[in-house]
Amino acid sequence: MPDTIIEMKNLTKAYGSKIAVKNMDLSIYRGEIVGLIGKNGAGKSTLLKMVAGLVHPTSGELHFFNRASADGQSFFERMGVLIEQAGLYPHYSAFENLKLLAIAYGLPDANAQIARLLKTVGLESSGSAKVKSFSLGMKQRLGIAAALLGSPDVLLLDEPINGLDPQGIVEIRALIRELNKDGLTILISSHILEELSKIATKYVIIHQGEMVEVISADDLLHKCEERIELRLEAIEAAIPVLERELKITDYKVSDNNTVYVYEKGAQIRQISKTLIEHGIEIDSIHKHQQSLEQYFLARTEQAGERHA
Ligand SMILES: Nc1ncnc2c1ncn2[C@@H]1O[C@H](COP(=O)(O)OP(=O)(O)O)[C@@H](O)[C@H]1O
Ligand SMILES: [Mg+2]
């Protein structure tokens, strides 16, 4: 049984008549890196703020560590949060910023932990420089260090990659992977699916406050992998021909009349010729590949049409 860390049931937030998050049902398990993907205004920040205890849900339920959130505030302490801009003081150093936060959190003897955190986020040599001289990437890493104060079990990161240069993106990704290896469960948002493509274990696509899809990283990669899409009526007759005559083993039957062939080196011409030789008629056959971004756009457009 996976260990459920956060469970949302029908979680909803309305700001006046504007429904920012609607009927969200989502479980987050220990050790996952969940990528929350949605365009600007989709409801990502609102969702994260509810999980962080910064915004009160209008309706629905939120359970942490298998307990209802009404039990008290104690689980919010087990959560590290970087939502919107980290509240950093520009005229103080990285170390001093963390020290001030530690005092505010009631952790007066945190010096050793702060030094360790600065090392974790790669700021050990910049610990005494003033934050106003930091690049955006450095500020984000310091923000993550701040979120890690108090050794949380869950880290909530709202668009931590937004606006970073390529080097900064690489660093944040590496940091997130490291933290996850050390056992942290991470919920991270982005408006660009591609940004999280190499780190999340599960993606949650949201559009206009509603969940459009939950998909594992493996399934997503498979969907965006190059494939030959073969449509025909006589699937049952075609499969043995694919396997025995064409030696195709990497394929998937998508529905009653569609087969996806992922096999490397498979040729459209060869497949059609062989099927026809065996008296199997083909409705259509073509190569299909979409980028992660195309996939994301297609999913949100479909969702948009359902709303219209
Ligand atoms: N404090 C607020 N008051 C009123 N509307 C809000 C507030 N915060 C967010 N919204 C609205 O809720 C929707 C979702 O916003 P948000 O959660 O910030 O989305 P995202 O982070 O995905 O860009 C948007 O339409 C936004 O305008
Ligand atoms: Mg946001």
From TrEMBL:
What protein am I looking at? ABC-type multidrug transport system, ATPase component
UniProtKB keywords: ATP-binding, Nucleotide-binding, Transport
Q: Which residues form the ABC transporter domain?
A: 6-233
State the Pfam families in the record: ABC_tran (PF00005)
State the source organism's domain of life: Bacteria
Keyword Nucleotide-binding in annotation: yes
Q: Does the keyword ATP-binding apply?
A: yes
For this protein's source organism, the top of the classification is: Bacteria, Bacillati, Bacillota, Bacilli, Bacillales
Q: Which family does the record claim for this protein? A: Belongs to the ABC transporter superfamily.
